Amino acid sequence: MMSTPPYGTPSPSDHGGQYGQPDPAGPYDQADQYGQAGQHGQPSPAPGPAAPAEPAPSGPAPGTDLGSDLGAALSFSGNALLRNPVAFLVSGVVYTVLLIVVMTVTMIGSIFLVFSMSENLQYGGEPGFGDILLIILASLIVMVLSFLVSLLWQSGAAKAAGIVRDGGRPSLGQVFVGPGRVILTAIVVMALVLVGTLLLYIPGLIAAVATMYALPAAVRGASVGAALKESFTLVRANLGVSVVGYLVMMLASTIAGTIVIGILISIPFTVLFQTGLYERLNGRRLPEPARS
Predict the structure, then answer these.
(1) What's the CA gap between 171 and 125, in Å, rounded?
(2) Is the CB of residue 129 less than 8 Å from the CB of residue 250?
(3) Which of 130, 135, 207, 263 makes a 20 to 30 Å CA pair with 240?
């Protein structure tokens, strides 16, 4: 006759093993009960070493310090030129040669017109209306062609500045001509500055400062009207740094005009500087231009 186990003592049939041992045929593994990864019954792999944290950016936040914003824009434009010399220099050579050709051809034509008028005066004649009209027309042609070459150069430099800003390196073909939206924005900006300059010069300076961020805004995708509006708003909110930035650009252009290499990079430097300052005043830190 079988004896009944004492009260409180578990029966061997209620457990998969000896008293206090886990049942090997239990429905869940202990590790799985707590959501551990890995196969059923296998221990989870030990976590690997944590990736080193990136150092926090140093210096004042973008758009909060005049010196830091100007310094960052200058560093960005200088490094972009130094690390992409072929793209910017070759395009500069091409556009500079085009400008020289336009001015030379126009100058030769003007000289012929002057000689023709001189011969008429020697024989007692007077300059005709046609001669005067031709001289005016020649001046307008050289002005329009020079503006057109400068516009294409600016648009290509602006497109290349956007590529550098995004961490890329512009190819030679990308530096020559920018998108139509950027070209139209450059045309409107140049027209505003020209009209303002004809109105006693001071309005031209105001227009130049007020529109100095229009090209970078257009490169980021803004329409012509939206780019101009954004530039006006940004200059009004950051008038001090914008005026100082414009003076820096004018000083750099003046110095660049005294040396050959400076002429070749004057427009790219100006557009890169505008892009750098535009990004900083919008609260975005500038990336380090990519190396080759």
Answers:
(1) 58
(2) no
(3) 263
Amino acid at 42: Q
* More confidently predicted of 64 and 285: 285
- Tell me which residue of 192, 287, 289, 286 sits closest to 231, measured CA to CA: 192
Using the predicted structure, report yes or no on whether residue 35 has a pLDDT greater than 50: no
CB neighbourhood size of 211 (10 A): 24
- State the CB neighbour count (10 A cutoff) for residue 25: 7
The owner of tokens 């101009």 is 228
Ordered DSSP codes for 34-63: TT--SSTTPPPPPP-PPPPPPPPPPSSPTT
Is 50 exceeded by the pLDDT of residue 34?
no
Q: Is the pLDDT of residue 40 over 50?
A: no
Cβ partners under 8 Å of residue 175, min gap 6: 87, 88, 90, 91, 156, 157, 159, 160, 268
pLDDT digits (tens, 9 = 90+) for 144-187: 888 888 899 999 999 999 999 999 999 988 899 999 999 999 99
Q: Which two tokens stand for residue 85?
A: 């010399």
Answer whether 43's CB lies under 8 Å from 37's CB: no
Q: How confident is the model over 231-259, as a mean pLDDT? A: 92
Buried-state track 177-189, b at ≥16 Cβ within 10 A, e below 16: bbeebbbbbbbbb
**Nearest-angstrom CA–CA distance, 18 and 164:** 72
Distance CA 278, CA 276 (A): 5
- What pTM, to 2 d.p., does this model score? 0.73
Task: Tell me how crowded residue 147 is: count the other CB atoms within 10 A of its CB.
Answer: 15
What pLDDT does 122 receive?
61
